[in-house]
Amino acid sequence: MKAWTIAALAAATGAGAWFARRHRQVQLAHPSLRHRLNYRVLPVNNPLVLAYYQHIVHKPTPVLEGVSVEHLQIPTAAPDDDHLVDLYVYTPQAGVTSRGALLWVHGGGLIMGSAALDHTHSSQLALDLGITVASVDYRLAPHHPFPAALNDCFAALAWLADEATKGRFDPARLVILGASAGGGLAAATAQRAHDEGIALALQGLIYPMLESGTGHTPMPGKGEFSWTPSANRYGWRSYLGRDVTNRDGRPYAVPAEREDLSGLAPAWIGVGELDLFYDEDLRYAARLRAAGVPVDLVTVPGMYHAADGLRPEAPAMLEFRAAMLSALRGALAS
C-alpha cells in the first residue's frame, strides 16, 4: 500500500475518532441548546486566533428602535492614567419607568469584545427594564493588562453614582450586571464600590469568570464549548501577566481571592452545569452567603458557557433570562 494511502487512512481514522468524541460531548448539552457551532473547536488561546475573533467574527450590533443612545468619554479611575473611557448610555424613548440605572459590563475573556458588540443587548435591557443602561467599553488585555479594565469599569460606575447625586438617578437603585469576564469585572467593581462607599442594590453575575486557576486541572464534562480551559488560561495570563500567582499590591485582580466578602451588594448568580465556571461560581455564591450577603443562585442543567447567546429562544434560556430580569426588577424597585 502506498505511503499516501496509509497517511490518508490514518487521517480519516483520526478525524472520525475526533468527531465521535465531539459528538458525545455535544450530547451532554440539553437537546434544545445544541448548536452546529458546538462542533467548532477554535479556542482563543493565542494571538492569531484572538485577532481572528476581534477583527472578523466580532461586529457591532444595532441599537434597537425605541432607544436613544448617547456616547460619552469619561476619565478612567486612576490619577496617573489620562485614558478616556468610552461609555454608551441607552434610554428608552418612551421614558423610564424607574429612576434606577444599570451598568452593563460585556464579556470576552478579558481579551476581546466591546460595548458596540453589545448595542442590541444593552438597548434590549433598557427596554425590558424601563431604565437607563450604561455600557462601558473597557480596555482589553494583553495590550492593557490589569488594572486598566477594572479602572475603566469603576469609572463608569462612579459616573452613574455622580449622576445620581445630581438627581438623575436614585442612588439606592444602582445595579451592575456583567457576563463571563464581564461578570468577573462586575464582581471586582462591586468589591471596589463597597470599599469606596458606592452603594449597589444588586450585582448581577452571569456565569462570571472569578478564579484564575480554573482550567489548570482536568474538569471532565465542563468547558467543552464557547470558553475552554486553554482559553481561560490565556485570558488570565494576558490580564495578570505571566506570573499569575503574584497578587502583591493588586487588589481586585481576581475577585474570588478577596478574603472578606461581608457587606458586599446582594448578588444574582446564574451559570450552567456544563460551564467551565460552574464550580468556581458555586464556591463564590457559598462564600458570599457565609459572609451574610443575600445570594440568588440559578443553575441550569445541560447549559454550557454562553448558551443563551447561541440558543436565546430555547425554553431553558428564556427562563434563565426571566430569572435575571426578575432579580433586576426587584432591586430597581426596592
TrEMBL record:
Domain Alpha/beta hydrolase fold-3, first and last residues per copy: 102-306
Keyword Iron annotated: no
InterPro entries (UniProt xref): AB_hydrolase_3, AB_hydrolase_fold, GDXG_lipolytic_enzyme
KW Ubl conjugation (keyword) present: no
UniProt KW keywords: Hydrolase
GO molecular function terms listed in the Swiss-Prot or TrEMBL record: hydrolase activity
Name the record gives this protein: Acetyl esterase/lipase
Source organism of this protein record: Bowdeniella nasicola
